[in-house]
Structure formats: C-alpha cells, structure tokens
Fold this protein.
Amino acid sequence: MKHLKSILTILILAVAVAGVAEYAMAQKKQPIKVCNKCGQHYKGTHNCPKAKKPDQKPKSEPKPKPKSVPKQPEPKPNPVPKQPEPKPQQLPNQTFTVDGVSFTMVAVPGGTFTMGATSEQGSDAYGGEKPAHSVTLSSYYIGQTEVTQELWQAVMGENPSWFNGTGSSRHGSSHSENYGINVKRPVEFVSWDDCQVFIRKLNQMTGKQFRLPTEAEWEYAARGGRNQGYKYSGSNNIDDVAVYQDNSYNKGKSSSDYGPHSVASKRANELGLYDMSGNVWEWCSDWYGGYSSSAQTNPTGPSSGSSRVSRGGGWGDDARRCRVATRSSYSPVSRHGSLGLRLAL
C-alpha cells in the first residue's frame, strides 16, 4: 500500500514538471515585442500602464465657452398720452313757450364744488355761510332768467307784482306809485306758497316737472358751475352783473331805474345765467337750516322748518347781500317787492 502511494506521488510530480517545461518552451518560441505606448519589451500579452481601461470613460475635452453677446436693452413702450378727464356731458338748453311767452332753461352739468364761505368771500361772509363744505350735484336745468311778469301772467292770468305798472288792489291803498308797464321785469311780491301754485299750473300746461331749485343747485349755478370763482355771479365787479341799491334804489322813486330792472339787462355769468346777483331775491325749495362740514350729495336741506331759503339779493340791497354765498329766509307766506323766483327742472 505504501508502495502504491509513492508511485502516485512520483507520477503527479512528473506531470507537473512536464507542464512547466512545456510552458517554458512555448515562451521561448514567442517573439519579443516592444509596447509603442510605454516602451516596455514583452512576450505574449502585455498590460500597458498607459493603455485605456475598458471601464474608464475617456476624458472629454472642455467645451468652449460660448461668446457672451451683450444684452440688448428692452425697447421701451411708446408712452400713451394722458387723456384729459372727461367733462360732464353738456346737455342742450331747452326753450318752452306758454301762451306765446317763451323762456329758456339752461343745462347745468353735474359736478362737485365748495359751498358757503369760500376764500373769495373774505370778511364779507356771514356766520350762516359757515362752515364751507363739499357738495356734489347731478345735472339739472335752471332758468336763464328770473320768472318774468309776462310768464306769470300767461300761467296764472294775473300779475301780482308791486312794480306791475298799473297798481294792484292786492297791495292795498298804499300802492299808489305808477312805475310804468314793463312785463320783462321779474315777477315779485309772490310768496313761496304762491310759487307752488304757479309751478303746478305750469306743469299741467307743459307736461314737465318744473320746480324751485334747491339751495345747493342755486349756488352752484350762481358760481357758474365752478368750484370757486367770483364773489358775485359772473364777476368781482358787482356793477357788471347786478341790479342793486347803488344803481337802482339809491336813485329814488322818481328815477326810471328805481326798482327791479328788465331781466337780462346786466352781463350773464359763465353758464349764461342772468341776475343771479341782485334784481330780486329768489325762492329755493329748502327749509332754512345751518350748514354741516360733512360732504353732501344732492342735498335738499332740513326736513322741516319755519322759513324757506331765498338767495341772490335784490335791487334794494347792498353789494354784500348780493354775493353768491349770501343766504336769507322768509316765512313761506311772506311777500314783498323784491322777492321772486327762478325755475329748475
């Protein structure tokens, strides 16, 4: 047995020695080569240290940076010209005729103004004109002139005026003066209540809705539809625009200038309205009340009171009482020879 194991060991060693000898002979037969990358001599295969490894990605050459193009400035948009604020739409004036007597209503575009004792009124302002306050009004119409004697006559069938040129039993025996017939004068000696009767009849005849202006409408129109303007309606020179004591009353009863003058005998204001200062006081629809400093829209005055507002001054008043901001009031049944009306619509 031991002898058999020895034989096997010898055979294995012989085979191994033969294999080594065979490998050595094969190596001797291979030609010697030179690596063209690293310069080493080798036979058979050669692991060149400079050769690319299969799992290694070739280094990419850096990409050239793109040339920077200077940034062009963005074109500025063409400036849009500023449009002027739209003006309130100007309505056309309207003319009406009653029994052959024509009268014109002037359109007043709505707007906002400061009512009361504004700066141009100065020290002439009375306490009742304060505080000045902002008022916004819708568009409306107002009479180009005060209601004339001829228009009142056409509607009511009578002329109640003190200055009617004929005298009137309505005024009693004290009315003995004859001032000449001139139906182009404003009607006067009419109460607030009288005016309501006149307006109801006029509306029946025309199918319209005439009325007295509110106090705010009256002042806005007297100011020519402007926020601030003249002390008087259309001028700072009262003689240009008003019939008042210096050119009427002070001349005495013997003068043809005494009393109210024909409507539109003085210069009109910016809206084309006549006699908003002077000639006769004009009834407004409001009850009289104090002003508030708060802004208002289309105000109509207090809900009740004892006297109604009148505005504008009259032919017997001084300049201070003919300003656009001056306020007065009378009982709704009061009448006198310097108290008339102007229509609104």
Q: What stands out?
A: Residues 2 and 86 are 131 Å apart (CA to CA). The mean pLDDT is 86. The radius of gyration is 54 Å. Residues 2-29 form the longest helix (28 residues).
